[in-house]
Structures are given as structure tokens and as C-alpha cells.
Amino acid sequence: MIRKCNEHGYFRGEVCPECNTKGRHVLGDRYEERLGKFVSGALRHFPNATGLEMDKKGWVNLDQFCNILKQKYKWATKESLISLVESDIKNRYEIDGGYLRACYGHSVDVELDHCECDLPYLYYGVSQEEADMILENGIKPVHQRYVHLSTSYGKANDAAQVHTDNPIIIKIDVDVARENGMSFMSATDEIVLAKQVPSEYLSIANFG
């Protein structure tokens, strides 16, 4: 569920993680799940099907989105949408003024403009069966606009374990790739986006 603390804003769970107060109820679990699925689909995969006008950088008008949302779910409010965005620990969405967008995960054709990542290395987890193919052919998006890279070995391992029990972690030499004109965008503190990563920048990572 989503609640709001008067001092620390929106949070998920029973009590505010900052001050341990209960706060005001905003959205129950069932409604949170339904709203989250719609927001993800509309902002990442099918904006046109919902009637949204999305610009090239993935932004949609917040008020237009709320109007469309209200037509689909009578219980949905602008606050419920904002609470979903601001309480999301994965930082999947962002609001800037009167506009809203997904930060990553797009299958629609967008050109995101996040800040450039300044880390020297990034990581990408794959199954043992995929490792040799990736090292030979590079990392390319399959169902998404960008490949999603992790900022640490541990985060890459966690992400890969959703799909495989014993992932192989590949290290990307970002410094060298950047010198050769590649761009790596920081979508969140944990996720970095690239259009693709050629094989010459890849190697098997040692733990840590």
C-alpha cells in the first residue's frame, strides 16, 4: 500500500521508513498493482493505444495522462498517480513540471536524455548458455529500446537471478567505450542505458 507522511512524503508499507509514523492512507495494494501495470504499459509500450501524445524523449502531459487514467479507473486521482511515482524505490518514473515519463524499460522508439554515466565499468548478468554468444556478438536490445546495464557486480547478479540460477557477470569497459564515442546514460543510481555494447568492450567479471 501507499501512504503519506506529513514530514517525509509518500512511502510504501505500513509505516514511514524515516520516522516510523503511520501517515495517511492513499492507495491500497490491489489498486496500487492495477495502477502500476497501466502506468508501465502506457509509458513504456503502448502510449498511442491509450490516447497519449508522447514526445521523442518519452514525456507525456501529466494532466492528459490523469484524464485518461480517470476514464479507465474511476477511483484513480492525480494524487494516486503522483504517490505511485514518488514512492517507487526503483525510480521507474519521473515527473518534471507538468510532464511524466518512464525512466527506462521502453519498447517504443524514444531518445532518452539522461545524464551521462561517469563510472569506469558497468556490469551485465547473463545465463551460462548466453555468455559465449554475448562475448562474441556484444550486448544488443531484444525487446527494449536500450540495453539495461548495472552499476555494480552485485546489482547485475541480482537482476540476472530473476532469469537464471547461476549467472555469468560480464564487465563493460565504459572508459574505453566512451573514448570511442559511445554513450551511457544513468537512468537511476543502479541502471545505465546504452543503445548497444560491442564485444570489444566486454570481458568476464571477477567477483566484486
TrEMBL record:
Q: What is its EC number?
A: 2.7.1.-
By its UniProt entry, which InterPro entries does this protein fall under?
Answer: Ptrans_KptA/Tpt1, RNA_2'-PTrans_C, RNA_2'-PTrans_KptA, RNA_2'-PTrans_N
Quick one: a GO biological-process term for this protein? tRNA splicing, via endonucleolytic cleavage and ligation
Q: Which UniProt keywords apply?
A: NAD, Transferase
Coiled coil, from the record: none
Q: Does the UniProt entry include the keyword rRNA processing?
A: no
- Which Pfam families does the UniProt entry name for this protein? PTS_2-RNA
Q: Which Gene Ontology molecular-function terms are recorded?
A: NAD+ poly-ADP-ribosyltransferase activity; tRNA 2'-phosphotransferase activity
Per the record, the similarity remark reads: Belongs to the KptA/TPT1 family.
UniProt-listed PANTHER family: PUTATIVE PHOSPHOTRANSFERASE, TRNA 2'-PHOSPHOTRANSFERASE 1
Q: What does this protein do?
A: Removes the 2'-phosphate from RNA via an intermediate in which the phosphate is ADP-ribosylated by NAD followed by a presumed transesterification to release the RNA and generate ADP-ribose 1''-2''-cyclic phosphate (APPR>P). May function as an ADP-ribosylase.
Q: What's the protein name?
A: Probable RNA 2'-phosphotransferase
Which species is this record about? Methanohalobium evestigatum (strain ATCC BAA-1072 / DSM 3721 / NBRC 107634 / OCM 161 / Z-7303)
